[in-house]
């Protein structure tokens, strides 16, 4: 009876460990997935939907350069990736974004601008077929 209890406890522990491993999100390769043009699908300011950024886009090049029409950082700048963070450097003005999620077609960025939290849900733009 005692060996049966130990065996069941052991199997339970193994099962819980396997469940914990399977529930852990694998880190995404941001460097590989980020290059391209991303267009805003939805934005929130302080957790509330906002339409003031309706035409927002980001274009990331693999060489570390980017373009955006974000009002506080409009134009071309450089960026660096560190873990789950992207730092945009535009003439010494640094804007830090956290990559909440990224896939081949969706990108969710979080940032704080002028002490206000924002979240940008972006979709990869389909390149023009010419």
TrEMBL record:
Entry-linked PROSITE patterns: PROKAR_LIPOPROTEIN
Name under which the protein is recorded: Lipocalin-like domain-containing protein
Top-level taxon in the UniProt lineage: Bacteria
């Amino acid at each position: 009876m005692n060996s049966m209890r130990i065996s069941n406890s052991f199997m339970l522990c193994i099962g819980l460990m396997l469940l914990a491993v399977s529930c852990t999100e694998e880190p995404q390769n941001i460097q590989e997935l980020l290059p391209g043009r991303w267009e805003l699908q939805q934005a929130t300011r302080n957790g509330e939907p906002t339409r003031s950024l309706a035409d927002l886009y980001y274009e990331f090049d693999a060489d570390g350069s980017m373009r955006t029409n974000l009002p506080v950082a409009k134009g071309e700048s450089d960026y660096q990736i560190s873990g789950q963070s992207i730092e945009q450097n535009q003439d010494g003005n640094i804007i830090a974004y956290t990559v909440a999620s990224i896939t081949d077609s969706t990108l969710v960025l979080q940032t704080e601008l002028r002490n206000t939290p924002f979240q940008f849900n972006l979709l990869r733009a389909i390149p023009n077929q010419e």
